[in-house]
Each structure stands twice: as C-alpha cells, then as structure tokens.
Specification:
By secondary structure, the chain is an alpha/beta fold. Helix content is 31%, strand content 21%. The radius of gyration is 20 Å and the shape is elongated.
Length: 252
C-alpha cells in the first residue's frame, strides 16, 4: 500500500472527506464481521493477520501493524479495518402506526450518539432522526460505540423543528425535560417520536415548540438532593425501556 492510499484512507476519519467520497471506516474484527453480514456495501478489507471469517467477493489486503496504525482513527489500532459505502438516505418519512422513533437535537458527543444508536437497536427502534447539529453517525468513534447497531438502525439528518411539527399533526411528540411530568405516571402510546436534547442545553426552544408531552425521570426518593441531571444516553435508555415496558403485548 503506497503513501497516497494510506493518506486517502486516513482522510475518512474527517467528516468532509466522508461526505465527499461517500465512504466511512469500520474498525475491529466484530465490527467488520457485522458489516459483511449487513446490506452495506464494502469496498475493501485490510488486515494484519489471517481472518477466521469469510470475506465474500472482496480480496483481503494484507498490511503490517505499522501501516494499520497509520490507517486507523482509533487510539488502539485494530487488526482488521474496512472501507464501506455510506447508504443513500432519503427524506425521513413520518412514523408508521405504533412506530416509535427517536429524535436527537444537537447531540454532540460521539460516544453518546453511538450508545443511543445501540440502544435504539436493542429496543427495536429502527429509525433515528437527527438535527444537522448532531454528531456525524459515521464518525469512527460513533461507529465503534454502536457495536454494530449502525448497520441495523437508519439514521436521518433533517431540520428537526419542521419534521416534528409535521409529526405532531398525526401522532404524539414526547420530549425529555427537567420540568416535565413524571414519566412513570404519564400515559405513553406505543408509537410517536421521543426527542432528547443536547448534553448541556437540552432540547432547543424551536424543537420544544413541537413537543406535545413533556417527560421527566424523577430521582429517588422524590425531592432528594441529587445530581443536576442524567447523561443523555442514560436518560434515553430509561425512557425507551419505559415505552417498551408499557406496550409489551399481553401473553395469552
């Protein structure tokens, strides 16, 4: 592998080049295996050692550990890395009947975004709608944090307030707020959109205007002196679990 190829692959750690080429990096044995089992198109697979899983349709490219370290966007370089095509995403349709969507308003931290995508996968949420200010879901740190969920959850970027106003005409829009109503006492429908906001500022005023139900996760015991707020990924996990718990079909 020559220097120009190394530079080109390394450039995919930056969003402007991911957008320009329509490609992103997938690093590590588990992640590459998940990629190869998905509907995503794999352009090339690069490894420092023989693999114990098949790579259909693509010849393996072998490099030494020093070159892999130059290619990788991670602090600890993997033994295998792939270049994959970003899927072409159309305009995000409104939620279907009883479908629950997540809406992310300016989530900045790649680790939080990756964890939320992983949570969506766990709770059967197949679509996430993000504001343009939300971190890029194909950032190498985000991809890594999803643990493969990025290949099963569709992530869309759009003007969030306008999208939520459209949703509000036909279904509920829930939002996480510190001044919301106790989520354990609120009625929760099977479907709709659940909005979570920026790590420091919460949901923006523009997006908040479209929220029809404001939710709050109370501390225990009620009124206790405790942390100011929960991490956004932790809050998302609690809220998704509560939505799903309320709407588990009865076992007959």
């Amino acid at each position: 592998m020559n220097a120009s190829e190394i530079k080109w692959i390394k450039s995919l750690s930056q969003k402007k080049f991911r957008d320009e080429y329509g490609l992103f990096l997938v690093e590590g044995r588990k992640m590459v295996e998940e990629l190869l089992c998905s509907s995503f198109v794999t352009q090339r697979v690069i490894t420092t050692q023989p693999l114990d899983f098949p790579v259909p349709g693509r010849p393996l490219e072998h490099v030494n550990a020093a070159i892999m370290a130059r290619l990788s966007a991670l602090k600890t370089p993997p033994t295998v890395l792939a270049v994959a095509e970003k899927p072409v995403t159309s305009k995000c349709p409104l939620p279907g009947k009883d479908e629950l969507l997540l809406a992310l308003d300016n989530i900045q931290d790649p680790g939080n975004l990756g964890t939320i995508i992983r949570l969506a996968d766990w709770f059967g949420i197949r679509r996430i709608v993000c504001s343009p200010g939300t971190a890029d879901c194909y950032n190498p740190k985000v991809v890594q944090a999803t643990m493969g969920a990025i290949f099963r959850v569709n992530v869309h970027y759009t003007a969030l307030p306008e999208f939520l106003q459209q949703v509000k005409k036909s279904t509920a829009v829930y939002g996480a707020f510190l001044d919301g109503g106790n989520v354990y006492q609120k009625r929760l429908a099977p479907g709709g959109v659940l909005v979570v906001g920026n790590e420091g500022n919460g949901i923006s005023p523009e997006a908040a205007e479209a929220v029809s139900e404001r939710l709050f996760i109370p501390p225990f015991p009620a009124g206790a002196v405790t942390s100011e707020s929960l991490n956004v990924a932790v809050s998302t996990a609690i809220l998704c679990a509560e939505f799903r718990r309320r709407n588990i079909p009865a076992i007959r």
